[in-house]
Amino acid sequence: MAGALPLTRARTRGAASVIVLLEKMQPKEQRIRGTGGAGVKSLDASSASPWSLLGPRTSYTDKSNGNQVFCKAELELVASLCQQHDVLCISDEVYQWLVYDTHQHVSIASLPGMWERTLTIGSAGKTFSVTGWKVGWVLGPDNIMKHLRTVHQNSVYHCPTQAQVAVAQCFEREQLLFGQPSSYFVQLPQAMQRCRNHMIHSLQSVGFKPVASQGGYFLTVDISNFKSKMPDLPGAAHEPYEMLRQVDDQEQGRQGLCPCSLVAKGAQPRGTTWPQL
Predict the structure, then answer these.
(1) What is the DSSP string of 78-145?
(2) What CATH code is carried by the domain that includes residue 32?
(3) E strand or H helix at 211, and its extent?
(4) pLDDT digits (tens, 9 = 90+) for 256-267
(5) What does each C-alpha distance from 49 to 26, 79, 93, 112 come to in angstroms?
(6) Which domain holds residue 149?
(7) The pLDDT of residue 24
């Protein structure tokens, strides 16, 4: 987004860098190797020494959206590791305004010693619910941003000017209304939380086990007992693609994302019965 991805790719080229993937939870290993990143290691979350693979050569660790809002103590742990190993933090905070219940968003760049080593990514699509506009931004210290601007200038040649102006006007309006009941940043999480609660109640009423999202658009649901409730559907219980496809067909447009699409080939099929809706 806004050049952060090209910057990351440029930074991770060469055998001197190491990329750590958490349990191969996204199929990025082949792409990383294909762009020159030779050092790819997988980290099992159950490891007795979960931080043993971090070091001076670490360039990148990935964390896909899990609908969790990290508390300040968890972010302080990440911050301490970044400082201990002199690691640059690229923080995807596109869901910062979609936080539910009593949870609060804390930007890792606000923690002591982190502004100078953090690039914070934002998205108009998530901030103002305009998916498809493809307008994003990155915040960070100038000594890092100047390199990002160079990469971005040579990666993107056409800008969505009209959308950029519209996003700027939205921010100007929200700055005037910030914290007030009429603010979109106040209204959005309230409306989405009502939708989340309705979905949770509906899924529980038919025997599914949803996990209450702490933030974001998605709801993770345990469908391990799906086959026993609908035995006439094609496919076996361990074939979530087929089961979800049948539900999509019958419900005409209600679609789930199967987590097994985010697991690398050869990895353990964890989460195949936990689609996101």
Answers:
(1) HHHHHHHTT--EEEE-TTTT-B-TT-----GGGSTTTGGGEEEEEEHHHHTT-TTS--EEEE--HHHH
(2) 3.40.640.10
(3) strand 209-211
(4) 676 665 555 555
(5) 22, 18, 27, 25
(6) 4-154
(7) 47
